[in-house]
Structure formats: structure tokens, C-alpha cells
Amino acid sequence: MNTMLFSPYTIGGLTLKNRIVMSPMCMYSCETKDGTVRTWHKIHYPARAVGQVGLIIVEATSVTPQGRISERDLGIWSDDHIAGLRELVGLVKEQGAAIGIQLAHAGRKAEVPGEIIAPSAIPFQESSRTPKEMTKTDIEETVQAFQNGARRAKEAGFDVIEIHAAHGYLINEFLSPLANRRQDEYGGSPENRYRFLGEVIEAVREVWDGPLFVRISASDYHPDGLTASDYVPYAKRMKEQGVDLIDVSSGAVVPARIDVYPGYQVPFAELIRREANIPTGAVGLITSGWQAEEVLRNGRADLVFLGRELLRNPYWPYAAARELGVSIEAPVQYERGWRF
Ligand SMILES: Cc1cc2nc3c(=O)[nH]c(=O)nc-3n(C[C@H](O)[C@H](O)[C@H](O)COP(=O)(O)O)c2cc1C
């Protein structure tokens, strides 16, 4: 049978062998606290490549030390990070997968010692630290840090860059009126709240001509927050700026109760794909082959991102192929596992 899940997909000049993407997931495994790639990363990511995932997106990797969620995050703020990342890229590519990296800054959700920064001096919740409101200089330096990160990602050999603009981290804080109360040109109107992301995309595009994804939180789940419809004009802007795909997640700008069920974020990916006419990735409780195939076949998204299912089963693509009646190549070392 011809499935969409196991058919190749070309984006921004890169051809993926299938439409299965490993969603970025923090491993908090840099025990040296200096942002460098450790043994854990060199086992964890290549295992999913052996599992036949088409594109692996490495976890949120911080463009500044201050932008880390925790001290154990991966980093890309220094040229010293390039060698480890290059090794990781080589290991994953050797096993036949493409590899991307998520460039991130945690903003007010950073849990590292020292000052934390955000568009406005509003804590995430009462128990959180109050961030410093970013000055124009802070903004310029952070945009530059994203560009430096992109340049290093290119030097390390990544195939894809994803900008993390979701989950209530720095860029998302600029976009959402719930976290951005600025009075200057970076706050207020929707255009002004987009300005920071627009500058980050422009800066990244100056040094990166490969596939560029942006992950968004398409709903703040709050009456005064952003909805998926608010992201349609933003997605159009991103497309104009040369973004190839919007990876559509949701939530976490403010604490909120989210009603989750299989494919709960898929309608957001579908809306943005249709209304902004841009490729999207769907993510969130996608766990079976037929469920993934449905999303693709009904034109609801172009790629399916899997998170926790790939933590449970690094070889999920084999299970999905069996479910869909497709035979996919196994590494030669494992062929005996398929013969009885
Ligand atoms: C352990 C863990 C770490 C995560 N870290 C990140 C991250 O670094 N960046 C990100 O955008 N999302 C992160 N997420 C969210 C996942 O990428 C994904 O969007 C979410 O888990 C929903 O998909 P799922 O139901 O397939 O797990 C993380 C999720 C988990 C479970």
C-alpha cells in the first residue's frame, strides 16, 4: 500500500525519507552544566535514527546561558559547542535520518541563577521569579544570539533549524498580550508584538538558507490570550519571511487547564495550513500509524511530530509500518528480527 506517512517529503530543498518527525524534547542531561553534548545525547538521538524516524529535531538548545530552562540544557551560545553538535549530527546522519535543532531562549521561564529577562517584568506565576524588562540593547543582543546560534548550527551540519516561539518561552512572551505589556514598538498591537520574532527570523535567514521551521503555541487557552485565528496573519508573515513550515503546538504562556485528547492540536495545524497556505507540522498525542496517516491524508498537516510515543518506543516507525501494512527497510544488523 502507498501511504503518505512513509512517502518522501521535500521541504526547503531537503528530502525526508518519510513524514515522521521526532518532536524536540529537553533531556536535561548536560550534567557538566556547560551546554555541551554528552554521552546521553549521542545514544538517545541516533537510536531514533536507527528506528527510522525521518527527521529528528534536537531539544530546545539555548542561544544564551541566561536563556536556559535549566542548567542542564544543551547550549549553542559558544563556538565551543560546535564540535559536540557536529559529532551528534554525524551519528544521526550515518543512520539515515535528517537532523534539525531547536534554537531557544526561555525568557521568564528560565530557571538558572542570575538575572532572567522577558518583554515585561511579569512573572509566569506567583511563585515564579520576576524577570527584568528587556532593554533595546537586550533585544538586539538576543536577536544576535539567535543569529550566532544559527551560524553555529550550520557549521555543525544540521539539516533544519527550528525557532522555538512556543510554550511561553521568550519569543512567545513577546507575541502574547498576556506576557507582553510593553509601551514601545515591541508591544501593544499585533504587529508590534510580532516585531521580535520578525527580527529573529530575519537574522537567522541572513546566515541560514536551509529549511526553517518555527514552533508556535497556537492557543493561550485564556480569554485575553491568542487563538489559532490570531496566528493566521502571523503565519502569513512568517511565510513571506522565508519560513518553510509552522510546527503547531499550543499553551504554556500562562498556567491554564488544557483538555487533552488524541490529536488535540491537529485542528490548529489544519487551520493555519489552510488559511495561511503554508506547510504545517501536527503534534500532540499522535500515537498510531493510522492516526498519523489520517492527519496527512486529509490535508491537516504535512509532517507529524511525535514526542512521548518516541520516548516509549524509539522504533515506533516499524510498528506504524506494520500497522499500515508497509514494509520498510531495517538496518541490516536487525534483519534477523523480521525473519521467523
Ligand atoms: C520530556 C519532554 C521534553 C520536552 N521538551 C520540549 C522542547 O525542548 N521543545 C519543545 O518545543 N517542546 C518540548 N516538549 C513538547 C513535545 O515536543 C511535544 O510537543 C509534546 O510532548 C506533545 O507531543 P506528544 O503528545 O507526542 O508527546 C517536551 C515534551 C516532553 C515530554
Rg measurement, Å: 19 Å
How much helix is in the residues?
25-40%
Bound molecules: flavin mononucleotide
Distance between the termini: 23 Å
Order of helices and strands: EEEHEEHEEEHEHHEHEHEHEHH
Average pLDDT score: 97
Q: What structural class do the secondary elements suggest?
A: alpha/beta
User: Low-confidence runs (pLDDT<50, min 5 residues)?
Assistant: none
Q: In what range is the share of β-strand residues? A: 15-25%
Shape: globular
Largest sheet: 8 strands, parallel, barrel
Please list the strands of the largest sheet in the order they lie side by side: 3-4-6-9-10-11-12-13
- Count of helices? 10
- Annotation, overall tally of beta strands: 13
GO molecular function: NADPH dehydrogenase activity
EC number: 1.6.99.1
Protein name: NADPH dehydrogenase
Enzyme class: oxidoreductase
